[in-house]
Structure formats: C-alpha cells, structure tokens
Amino acid sequence: MSNKALEIKNLSFKYRHNSKETLKKINLSVEKGKWLSILSRNGSGKTTLIKLAAGLLENSSKGSIKIFDQEVNQENFASIKEHIGMVFQNPDNQFVGPTVQDDVAFGLENKSIERNEMIERVDSALKDVEMIEFANREPNSLSGGQKQRVALASVLALQPDIIILDEATSMLDPKGRKSLLKLVQKLRSQYKITVIAITHDIQEIEQSDQVIIIDGGKKKLEGKPAKILIEDEKLESFGLEVPFTKRVRKRLFELGIILPNDYESKEMVANKIWKYYSKM
Amino acid sequence: MIFGRYVSGDSFIHKLDPRDKLISATLIIIISFLANEPLSALILGLICLLILLVSKIKLLFFFRGIRFFLIMIAFTAILQLLFANNGEELFSVGPIRITSFGAKIASLTFFRFSLAIIIATLFTLTTSMIQISDAVGYLIRPLKIFKLPVDDIVLTLSIALRFIPTMLQEISTISDAQKARGSSLNSRSIAKKIKAIVPILMPLFIASVRRAEDLATAMIMRGYSDGKNRTKFRIMKWKNRDTLIILFLLFLLIFFGITKK
Ligand SMILES: Nc1ncnc2c1ncn2[C@@H]1O[C@H](COP(=O)(O)OP(=O)(O)OP(=O)(O)O)[C@@H](O)[C@H]1O
Ligand SMILES: [Mg+2]
C-alpha cells in the first residue's frame, strides 16, 4: 500500500446553490500513520473538505483527491469507505444501535460478517476503547464521552486505515476530551491508523504531526504544531484563539523576561518559569 | 401507568423467546373470548396469576399500574349490569332491575378485558422494545413475498425506538430553556399554552433534521446500503419450552372451542 493516506491536489468546491466557492485550490497530503489537524473558524469549509475526501460529496472540480493512491469518485466509493472511519461532533447522532454492543456490531452486520467473528470483533473493539463493561448499556445511560468512545469502537471494529474526527471532542468536558484524545493516540500507534482531526482544541493540535489552517476556503498555513502555534497574530486574524502559553510568554516579554521563542506545552513553559524564578 | 413499560429482569418469563411471548399473549386473549363459563375463566385466571408470579414483578406495583384500566372496565361492566333488561330477574331496587343475563355479560366483560390488559401489560413489562420489534419483524417476514422491505422496516423501527428517550430528553431541555426565557408553558390558558408549544417544536424539528442527516452519513460510512444481505448480531433463540407453551395454549384453545356452549 502507498505511503500517502490522503493526497489532495488543486481541489475547489462549490455547493450547487451557493454563489461562492466553499473551497479554493486546496493542496494537501497526509502520510500514512500521521495525525493531521485541520483548523479554521466556523463555516469555512472543514466539514466540506473531509466529506469530499470520504466521497460523501461529489468532486466536480478539475482537482483530484486520492486515498491510498485511489481516486475518490462515485465508482470507487465502496472501496474508499472501507479505508475510512468517521466520528462526528454530536455523540447522539451517530449511535444507531439500541445498546452499545449492537451499535458496534452495526457496521459488521452491514458487511455480512459471520456472527461468531462479529462477537469477537465487537468484544475486542470495546476492550480497545475501555467500554467492555458497558456492552449492554443503552445510549441514554451513557455520558457524552462514553458515547464518543462507543462511536470510536464502532469505527475500529471495521478496521479502518484512516480515522476522521469532525470536532469529535468539542461537545465533551475537558476531562472527557483529554481521555478521548489519549485513546485515539494509543490506537493510532497500535494499529498504524492515520488520523485527520478537525478541531478548535489546542491540546488536540499539540498531539498532531501536521496542522493546516483554512480560511475563506483557502489553505492559509501549514506546518508542525510548534511552528503554527507561535504565529499568534495570524491565528488571531483567522478568528482562532491564541494558545495560553503564547499569551503568557508575550506578557512576560513585556515585563522584560524573555523565554525562548518556540512553541512548547504548558508544562514545559511552567518548568521554564520555575527555573527562572528560582534563579532570581 | 405501566402499560408499555419494560422492567428488566432475568425471570423465566423474561427469558422466553419474544416471538413465543407475542404469540402466547395473543392466544391467551383469543382463548379468553371462548371461555364463557366459570371453570374455564378460573383456569385462565390461574394461568395469568402464575405468569405474574413467575415473572417476579411486584404485585402491588403491577396492580397499581393497571388500576386505571381496571376501574374503567369495572365501570363499563356495572353499566351493562344496570341496563341489560332481558333474562330472569334476580332482584330489583326501585327502577333498577338486575337480571341473570346482565350479571353474566357484566362478569364476562370484566373478566375478558381485565385479562387482556393484564396479559398485554405482562408482555411489555417482560419484553424490551427492541425484542418486541425483533419479534414483530420475524413474524411479518412472510410479507416479503409481497415485496415488503421487512428488514428495512424493522431497522427503521428499532432506530426510531432508540431515539425516543433522546428526543424526550431534548424536549425537556428545550422547554426548560423556554421557561427560563419566560415562556407561558405553565399558563392556564389553552391558547397561551399552544402558543408556547411552537417554540419548543421548532428547535426540536430542526435538531431532528440535522440528526437524520448525521445519522444517515454515519450509517453510510459504516457500510449500510439496504436491509438485504445483512448478518444479525442480535439473535432470538427458540427453545423447546417455547414450543411446549404454544402447544399447551393451542390445546386449551381447541378444548375450549369444542366445549363452548
Ligand atoms: N449542503 C450545503 N449546501 C449549501 N451550502 C452548504 C452546505 N453545507 C455547507 N454549506 C456552506 O458551506 C460553507 C462551509 O460549510 P462547512 O460545514 O464545510 O464548514 P465548517 O468549517 O465545517 O463549519 P463548522 O465549524 O461550523 O463545522 C458554509 O458557509 C455553509 O453554509
Ligand atoms: Mg463542520
């Protein structure tokens, strides 16, 4: 299999009844096993982009979209969606089955998988997301975070190569968000899954290998999280919140204290401040 | 009101095949219409009591739950008792004549309808919605001959059932939000009440459309195309005891059918 999980070249897109193009000449490539974060303000076309990538919308432009070297189009849709698992924002809207295990089994039933194998795969997917004790629960007795884990298990049971998270953590509390992210990270390295995540969450961006910022339908910035997250003026101008550590650094700079100017996690900045403080 | 509710448990009745329970409940109700004398009524009554005891449902909870129905049925029966005029007179108080015929149909009405309510309630109390929909889906399978998309219907039904609690929760969230904004939902005036319902229905409707779209996308991405060629994760297991129960009820049906006067 090719090393390129997703490759988009010169992709533009316009919804039929809209006058303006939603996406303009997007180029993007994601290597197998990497984690890409897509960032932008509301309504700037992230969901449209991933729907195109998954073949859920028809690409009528001259640009091309390839998943593992296979062109995404109507004819290939069946084999394209085999590669991809999607988790959406609203935990309730993707829960199909009456119970947790039924929901995980839904995709397997569709693929006419024999029942004994189905039971095994449901079990192992639920163990992977640490939800096995909840196998018989009904969706309404679960928290949002637990429902998202089930959604992840439902996708995992189908053994995808790419997992797309469309703001999958945005309706969760900080704790639920953190633990879901940890889980995705673990599964990614365990199964060599490529992750494409739409997000507003700094933590989620910190975890990724590659970040792109889309604004007004165009790709505006691309790079490693450390590089993107220090561009605070640009981030702000795209309507995104500047990371806390960056704001701290800026305030300190104004007070005459200079910390090295590359982006680091909260813990590391806190450490640096400690060191600085003890030297005083 | 407990009709339509499910109380999970692991009694013998809970564990019976839902198809068996559905057919048996129907059979018992049919039999009750053949039973028109004290002995056969007694037998059926005892069967119901046995089911109730075996199902480990608390008697007080059960009868409190169906109290409303029982009162309504008793009321109907009393009316029949008072207004039936044919037959031998048993006794009379002023203008009211109680006849043997009146007594007979009143007791039959009370017996049959109470029994139907008891059996139907026992069925739903011991069988979850999803089991009922599986059982119905199985039993209407012959309709496939008429090109009825039975599998799709059953899946649709099961998804609808799964979303009922979600939507109820949503309704309560939205109406709380509207109340906080001074909606007149608790007002006495009917007109005001109806006006207050619209701002609840609209967000609910919009949320549902959005949900349907998300759900459809999620189902497509997980490989759903139509009901055909799907394997089943949830299965029903028909056991010997299920066959025995049906045979016993069929025997009663025939027996009462033959001995009916
Ligand atoms: N089915 C559709 N038909 C027409 N226009 C649409 C459709 N779906 C989305 N749009 C428009 O396309 C633009 C991009 O929408 P999209 O959902 O891709 O944005 P997004 O970045 O995912 O937003 P959000 O952050 O709110 O999820 C928006 O202006 C939206 O109004
Ligand atoms: Mg979106």
TrEMBL record, chain A:
Instruction: Could you list this entry's UniProt keywords, alphabetically sorted.
Output: ATP-binding, Cell membrane, Membrane, Nucleotide-binding, Translocase, Transport
Quote the SUPFAM superfamilies the UniProt record gives: P-loop containing nucleoside triphosphate hydrolases
Give the Pfam families listed for this entry. ABC_tran
Molecular functions per Gene Ontology: ATP binding; ATP hydrolysis activity; ATPase-coupled transmembrane transporter activity
**One CC-aspect GO term:** ATP-binding cassette (ABC) transporter complex
Subcellular location per UniProt equals: Cell membrane
User: Which Gene3D superfamilies does the UniProt entry name for this protein?
Assistant: P-loop containing nucleotide triphosphate hydrolases
Q: What is its main location?
A: membrane
Does the keyword GTP-binding belong to this entry? no
InterPro entries with a match to the protein in the record: AAA+_ATPase (IPR003593), ABC_transporter-like_ATP-bd (IPR003439), ABC_transporter-like_CS (IPR017871), ABC_transpr_CbiO/EcfA_su (IPR015856), ECF_ABC_transporter_ATP-bd (IPR050095), EcfA_1 (IPR030947), P-loop_NTPase (IPR027417)
Query: Any keyword ATP-binding?
Result: yes
Annotated ranges, domain ABC transporter: 6-241
Membrane association type: Peripheral membrane protein
Family annotation (NCBIfam families): ECF_ATPase_1 (TIGR04520), PRK13648.1 (NF010167)
In the record, the note on similarity to other proteins reads: Belongs to the ABC transporter superfamily.
Protein name, per record = ABC transporter domain-containing protein
- The organism encoding this protein is Oenococcus oeni AWRIB429
